Amino acid sequence: MTERPPISSHPSPEASLPATATQVAITAPVRAILWMLLASALFALMALCSRLSSGSAPWTEVAFARAFFGLVVAASVARIRGFPLRVQDQKRAWGRSLCGTLSMLCTFYVYGAPELPLGDAAALGATSPIFLAVLAPFVLGERSGKKALLATPLAFFGVILVVQPKLQIAGHLAAISTLGALFSAFAMMFLRRLGPNESPEAVATHFSAVATVITLALAIPTFQRPDLPGFLALAGTGISAGLGQLAMTRAYALDHAARVGTVGYAGVVLTQLLGVLVLDERPGWGQVVGTTLVIVSGVLLALTALRYSRRA
Q1: What is the dihedral of CA 311, 259, 67, 100, to 10 degrees?
Q2: What string of DSSP letters covers 196-255?
Q3: What CA–CA distance (Å, rounded) separates 157 from 306?
């Protein structure tokens, strides 16, 4: 029996269309890829804002801004759309929120390290989908398919070429970044277990509320009042991350975790592009080849999603 993708509790626009129109509607796996691409772009913007704000604020304050503004965004969107903020599956929501908070702390600690280039930090954090692809069959019982299994190492190799990490960094930074990627993989699997019956706004609000409390406790002892550019960078970090969280939550609710997670490699490429446009960085041949490999892996995932949707 062919497995069907889960059905969202929120009626979709195509539900009221005639059968002929529904057949050409965008299917759940494809929507998941589009949502994850949007999330990747927003998280790339978050990484840039985080690096810009690190010059005027300690990493704990940057992490708090990400959590607090993310909470405001998620709660505001839920209120506008009229969705409840209570998560039904509290156990898995807490697992997602705690793992996500630990991953966030590791990420912003590494982003705040002045000796580590932004591209290197992005490359180390990009190991999360690798953990996800390896663990998902055992934890979630999800088979990723041959194309997805090929896309995962192909995309990661492309990421390595794009950012060309020298890895000439302190060992503890590499360990912390890798640990953050592992926590992120577990958080994504909790997201997949939550499924589409939970609204993205409720899940994101739960995570942001937990993260806000924890990061506030860490930020108070080292608080520094930022100037106006620093405050804008802090706000940009949180707002872009909050919107990215909503998009990512919807993506993981719609399709297999390993396949969705691999699409997240696009965020590393986008981070590199923002470095070129904003930080005046100049990509070499490795960045060009790596970007091509990431795009190829995305095409493989899209083909897998289309094949899956035709069978559903």
Answers
A1: 110
A2: TTS-HHHHHHHHHHHHHHHHHHHHGGG-----HHHHHHHHHHHHHHHHHHHHHHHHHHHS
A3: 24
Distance of CA 264 to the CA centre of its chain: 6
* Other beta carbons less than 10 A from residue 23's beta carbon: 10
Asked if 129 and 265 count as a contact pair (C-beta separation under 8 A), the reply is yes
d(CA 281, CA 273): 9
Helix (H) / strand (E) containing 113: none
pLDDT in tens, 152-193: 777 777 777 766 665 555 567 777 888 888 898 898 888 878
Describe the crossing of helices 200-219 and 228-254 by its angle, rounded to 10 degrees: 140
- Summarised one tens digit per residue, pLDDT across range 244-254 is 888 887 887 78
Q: What is the CA radius of gyration of the chain?
A: 19
Tokens 């000796």 locate to 115
pLDDT (mean) for 227-248: 87
pTM over 0.90: no
Q: Which two tokens stand for residue 255?
A: 């399709």
Q: Which two tokens stand for residue 80?
A: 């506008």
Is the predicted pLDDT of residue 283 greater than 70, yes or no?
Answer: no
For 50, the token pair is: 């985080």
Confidence band of 144 (pLDDT split at 50, 70, 90): low
Q: Which amino acid is at 312?
A: A
- Calculate the alpha carbon distances from 201 to 64, 245, 294 in Å: 19, 9, 30
